[in-house]
Protein backbone atom coordinates (compact mmCIF):
# COMPACT_ATOMS: atom_id res chain seq x y z
CA UNK A 1 0.00 0.00 0.00
CA UNK A 2 1.34 3.45 -0.94
CA UNK A 3 2.37 5.49 2.08
CA UNK A 4 1.47 9.17 2.42
CA UNK A 5 3.22 11.74 4.56
CA UNK A 6 1.30 12.53 7.74
CA UNK A 7 1.82 15.92 9.28
CA UNK A 8 0.77 17.09 12.75
CA UNK A 9 -2.59 18.83 12.82
CA UNK A 10 -2.34 22.52 11.97
CA UNK A 11 1.26 22.40 10.65
CA UNK A 12 1.80 24.52 7.54
CA UNK A 13 2.88 22.53 4.51
CA UNK A 14 3.91 23.37 0.95
CA UNK A 15 3.34 20.13 -0.93
CA UNK A 16 0.50 19.83 -3.45
CA UNK A 17 -1.31 16.97 -1.71
CA UNK A 18 -0.89 16.07 1.99
CA UNK A 19 -2.92 14.22 4.58
CA UNK A 20 -3.75 15.97 7.85
CA UNK A 21 -4.54 14.11 11.03
CA UNK A 22 -6.91 16.13 13.18
CA UNK A 23 -6.85 16.24 16.97
CA UNK A 24 -9.79 13.83 16.96
CA UNK A 25 -8.13 11.36 14.62
CA UNK A 26 -10.14 12.53 11.56
CA UNK A 27 -8.33 12.70 8.21
CA UNK A 28 -8.34 15.91 6.18
CA UNK A 29 -6.79 16.63 2.79
CA UNK A 30 -5.11 19.86 1.79
CA UNK A 31 -4.38 21.03 -1.77
CA UNK A 32 -2.16 23.78 -3.09
CA UNK A 33 -3.47 26.68 -5.18
CA UNK A 34 -2.04 25.06 -8.33
CA UNK A 35 -4.10 21.96 -7.72
CA UNK A 36 -7.20 24.07 -7.08
CA UNK A 37 -6.74 25.94 -10.36
CA UNK A 38 -6.32 22.64 -12.18
CA UNK A 39 -9.51 21.33 -10.56
CA UNK A 40 -11.58 24.26 -11.74
CA UNK A 41 -10.21 24.33 -15.28
CA UNK A 42 -10.40 20.59 -15.81
CA UNK A 43 -14.06 20.18 -14.86
CA UNK A 44 -15.46 23.37 -16.40
CA UNK A 45 -16.41 21.71 -19.71
CA UNK A 46 -18.17 18.36 -20.14
CA UNK A 47 -17.23 17.86 -23.74
CA UNK A 48 -15.51 19.65 -26.58
CA UNK A 49 -17.76 21.85 -28.70
CA UNK A 50 -19.24 20.29 -31.84
CA UNK A 51 -18.42 22.43 -34.88
CA UNK A 52 -19.51 22.12 -38.51
CA UNK A 53 -17.50 24.31 -40.89
CA UNK A 54 -19.13 24.29 -44.34
CA UNK A 55 -17.40 25.94 -47.30
CA UNK A 56 -19.71 26.21 -50.32
CA UNK A 57 -17.96 25.43 -53.60
CA UNK A 58 -18.80 25.63 -57.28
CA UNK A 59 -19.11 21.95 -58.27
CA UNK A 60 -17.48 22.72 -61.64
CA UNK A 61 -14.48 24.44 -60.02
CA UNK A 62 -14.02 22.85 -56.63
CA UNK A 63 -11.91 24.76 -54.12
CA UNK A 64 -12.23 24.17 -50.36
CA UNK A 65 -10.57 26.39 -47.76
CA UNK A 66 -8.13 24.55 -45.45
CA UNK A 67 -9.79 23.30 -42.29
CA UNK A 68 -13.28 23.44 -43.81
CA UNK A 69 -15.61 20.81 -45.29
CA UNK A 70 -16.52 21.45 -48.90
CA UNK A 71 -20.13 21.44 -50.07
CA UNK A 72 -20.17 21.30 -53.88
CA UNK A 73 -23.16 23.32 -55.07
CA UNK A 74 -24.50 22.78 -58.59
CA UNK A 75 -22.91 25.22 -61.06
CA UNK A 76 -26.10 25.91 -63.02
CA UNK A 77 -29.24 25.12 -61.07
CA UNK A 78 -30.20 24.15 -57.56
CA UNK A 79 -28.69 21.53 -55.27
CA UNK A 80 -25.61 20.12 -53.64
CA UNK A 81 -25.01 18.52 -50.25
CA UNK A 82 -22.39 17.05 -47.94
CA UNK A 83 -22.65 14.56 -45.08
CA UNK A 84 -20.66 15.53 -41.98
CA UNK A 85 -20.82 12.89 -39.27
CA UNK A 86 -24.35 11.89 -40.23
CA UNK A 87 -25.67 15.44 -40.58
CA UNK A 88 -26.42 16.30 -44.22
CA UNK A 89 -25.96 19.97 -45.09
CA UNK A 90 -27.73 20.84 -48.33
CA UNK A 91 -28.24 23.82 -50.63
CA UNK A 92 -31.82 24.61 -51.68
CA UNK A 93 -33.51 27.35 -53.68
CA UNK A 94 -30.38 28.57 -55.50
CA UNK A 95 -29.73 29.56 -59.11
CA UNK A 96 -26.26 28.03 -59.11
CA UNK A 97 -22.70 28.50 -57.89
CA UNK A 98 -19.67 30.43 -59.06
CA UNK A 99 -15.93 30.79 -58.39
CA UNK A 100 -14.33 34.21 -58.85
CA UNK A 101 -10.80 33.92 -60.20
CA UNK A 102 -9.52 30.34 -60.49
CA UNK A 103 -8.81 27.37 -58.25
CA UNK A 104 -5.13 28.37 -58.39
CA UNK A 105 -5.85 32.04 -57.70
CA UNK A 106 -9.28 32.65 -56.17
CA UNK A 107 -10.51 36.19 -55.69
CA UNK A 108 -10.05 37.08 -52.88
CA UNK A 109 -9.40 33.68 -51.25
CA UNK A 110 -10.56 30.06 -51.07
CA UNK A 111 -13.31 30.73 -48.51
CA UNK A 112 -15.15 33.69 -50.02
CA UNK A 113 -14.01 33.37 -53.63
CA UNK A 114 -16.80 30.87 -54.35
CA UNK A 115 -20.47 30.85 -53.40
CA UNK A 116 -24.01 29.74 -54.12
CA UNK A 117 -26.23 32.51 -55.44
CA UNK A 118 -29.81 33.47 -56.17
CA UNK A 119 -30.70 36.52 -58.24
CA UNK A 120 -34.15 38.04 -58.54
CA UNK A 121 -36.69 39.88 -56.47
CA UNK A 122 -37.70 38.19 -53.20
CA UNK A 123 -35.45 35.21 -53.95
CA UNK A 124 -33.52 33.31 -51.27
CA UNK A 125 -30.77 30.73 -50.77
CA UNK A 126 -31.33 28.05 -48.11
CA UNK A 127 -28.76 25.93 -46.29
CA UNK A 128 -30.30 22.91 -44.58
CA UNK A 129 -28.84 21.77 -41.25
CA UNK A 130 -29.68 18.10 -41.67
CA UNK A 131 -33.04 16.53 -40.86
CA UNK A 132 -35.34 16.71 -37.85
CA UNK A 133 -33.50 15.81 -34.67
CA UNK A 134 -30.01 15.98 -36.19
CA UNK A 135 -28.91 18.98 -34.13
CA UNK A 136 -28.56 18.23 -30.44
CA UNK A 137 -30.65 20.23 -27.99
CA UNK A 138 -28.95 23.36 -26.71
CA UNK A 139 -27.55 26.64 -27.96
CA UNK A 140 -25.82 26.85 -31.32
CA UNK A 141 -23.82 29.70 -32.80
CA UNK A 142 -24.15 30.39 -36.53
CA UNK A 143 -21.57 32.40 -38.47
CA UNK A 144 -22.41 33.36 -42.06
CA UNK A 145 -20.02 34.46 -44.83
CA UNK A 146 -21.44 36.44 -47.76
CA UNK A 147 -19.31 38.09 -50.43
CA UNK A 148 -18.85 38.44 -54.20
CA UNK A 149 -15.75 40.21 -55.51
CA UNK A 150 -17.58 41.04 -58.75
CA UNK A 151 -20.30 42.89 -56.83
CA UNK A 152 -18.54 44.33 -53.80
CA UNK A 153 -21.62 46.38 -52.92
CA UNK A 154 -24.18 43.60 -52.97
CA UNK A 155 -26.56 45.58 -50.81
CA UNK A 156 -28.51 44.46 -47.77
CA UNK A 157 -29.72 40.88 -47.40
CA UNK A 158 -32.25 39.34 -45.04
CA UNK A 159 -30.82 36.59 -42.83
CA UNK A 160 -33.21 34.25 -41.10
CA UNK A 161 -33.61 30.89 -39.37
CA UNK A 162 -36.34 28.42 -40.33
CA UNK A 163 -37.74 25.84 -37.92
CA UNK A 164 -39.36 22.79 -39.55
CA UNK A 165 -39.34 24.65 -42.85
CA UNK A 166 -41.11 27.78 -41.55
CA UNK A 167 -39.54 31.19 -41.09
CA UNK A 168 -42.66 32.24 -39.14
CA UNK A 169 -42.20 29.65 -36.39
CA UNK A 170 -41.24 30.79 -32.88
CA UNK A 171 -37.48 30.90 -32.48
CA UNK A 172 -35.05 31.82 -29.72
CA UNK A 173 -32.52 34.09 -31.42
CA UNK A 174 -29.60 35.48 -29.40
CA UNK A 175 -31.36 34.42 -26.21
CA UNK A 176 -34.67 36.12 -27.05
CA UNK A 177 -37.86 34.25 -27.94
CA UNK A 178 -39.49 35.81 -30.99
CA UNK A 179 -42.43 34.99 -33.22
CA UNK A 180 -40.31 34.36 -36.32
CA UNK A 181 -36.79 33.49 -37.32
CA UNK A 182 -35.66 36.80 -38.80
CA UNK A 183 -32.17 37.58 -37.56
CA UNK A 184 -31.58 40.79 -39.50
CA UNK A 185 -32.96 42.66 -42.50
CA UNK A 186 -29.70 44.48 -43.11
CA UNK A 187 -26.86 41.98 -43.51
CA UNK A 188 -24.06 43.50 -45.56
CA UNK A 189 -21.40 41.50 -47.39
CA UNK A 190 -17.91 41.11 -45.96
CA UNK A 191 -14.63 39.83 -47.39
CA UNK A 192 -12.82 39.68 -44.05
CA UNK A 193 -14.79 37.54 -41.63
CA UNK A 194 -18.42 36.60 -41.12
CA UNK A 195 -21.05 38.97 -42.46
CA UNK A 196 -23.28 38.00 -39.53
CA UNK A 197 -23.29 35.86 -36.41
CA UNK A 198 -26.12 34.79 -34.10
CA UNK A 199 -27.18 32.06 -31.71
CA UNK A 200 -30.34 29.97 -31.64
CA UNK A 201 -31.83 27.35 -29.37
CA UNK A 202 -32.36 23.83 -30.73
CA UNK A 203 -34.99 21.63 -29.10
CA UNK A 204 -33.21 18.47 -30.31
CA UNK A 205 -36.23 17.30 -32.31
CA UNK A 206 -36.97 19.92 -35.00
CA UNK A 207 -35.23 20.57 -38.31
CA UNK A 208 -33.40 23.85 -38.85
CA UNK A 209 -31.94 25.83 -41.75
CA UNK A 210 -30.87 29.36 -42.54
CA UNK A 211 -31.88 31.47 -45.50
CA UNK A 212 -30.49 34.57 -47.19
CA UNK A 213 -32.98 36.70 -49.14
CA UNK A 214 -32.17 39.74 -51.20
CA UNK A 215 -33.22 43.08 -49.74
CA UNK A 216 -31.57 45.41 -52.19
CA UNK A 217 -32.07 47.09 -55.55
CA UNK A 218 -29.59 44.68 -57.15
CA UNK A 219 -31.74 41.63 -56.25
CA UNK A 220 -28.63 39.58 -55.47
CA UNK A 221 -27.93 37.03 -52.71
CA UNK A 222 -24.63 35.25 -52.03
CA UNK A 223 -23.69 32.48 -49.55
CA UNK A 224 -20.02 31.48 -49.27
CA UNK A 225 -19.74 29.57 -46.01
CA UNK A 226 -21.41 28.77 -42.70
CA UNK A 227 -19.88 27.67 -39.41
CA UNK A 228 -22.21 26.05 -36.88
CA UNK A 229 -20.89 25.57 -33.32
CA UNK A 230 -22.64 24.07 -30.32
CA UNK A 231 -22.03 26.14 -27.20
CA UNK A 232 -21.17 23.76 -24.33
CA UNK A 233 -23.36 23.90 -21.24
CA UNK A 234 -21.72 24.45 -17.85
CA UNK A 235 -20.59 21.12 -16.44
CA UNK A 236 -22.46 19.54 -13.58
CA UNK A 237 -19.04 18.20 -12.65
CA UNK A 238 -18.07 21.74 -11.76
CA UNK A 239 -20.69 21.76 -9.02
CA UNK A 240 -19.38 18.45 -7.75
CA UNK A 241 -15.89 19.90 -7.83
CA UNK A 242 -16.99 22.86 -5.75
CA UNK A 243 -18.48 20.53 -3.17
CA UNK A 244 -15.35 18.42 -3.11
CA UNK A 245 -13.20 21.49 -2.74
CA UNK A 246 -15.27 22.61 0.22
CA UNK A 247 -14.74 19.21 1.83
CA UNK A 248 -11.03 19.25 1.08
CA UNK A 249 -10.57 22.59 2.75
CA UNK A 250 -12.75 21.79 5.74
CA UNK A 251 -10.88 22.87 8.83
CA UNK A 252 -11.90 22.16 12.36
CA UNK A 253 -11.99 25.28 14.46
CA UNK A 254 -10.20 24.90 17.73
From TrEMBL:
Pfam families named among the record's database cross-references: PEP-CTERM
Domain Ice-binding protein C-terminal: 230-252
NCBIfam families (alphabetical): PEP_CTERM (TIGR02595)
Protein name listed in UniProt: PEP-CTERM sorting domain-containing protein
Natural source organism: Oceaniferula marina
Amino acid sequence: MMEKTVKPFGQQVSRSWLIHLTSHGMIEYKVSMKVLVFLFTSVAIVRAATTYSIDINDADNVLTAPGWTGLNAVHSGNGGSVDVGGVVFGIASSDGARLRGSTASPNPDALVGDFAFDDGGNEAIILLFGAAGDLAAGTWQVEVWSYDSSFITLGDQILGLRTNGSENADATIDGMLQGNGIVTNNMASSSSGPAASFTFLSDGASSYDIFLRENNANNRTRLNAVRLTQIPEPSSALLLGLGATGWIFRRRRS
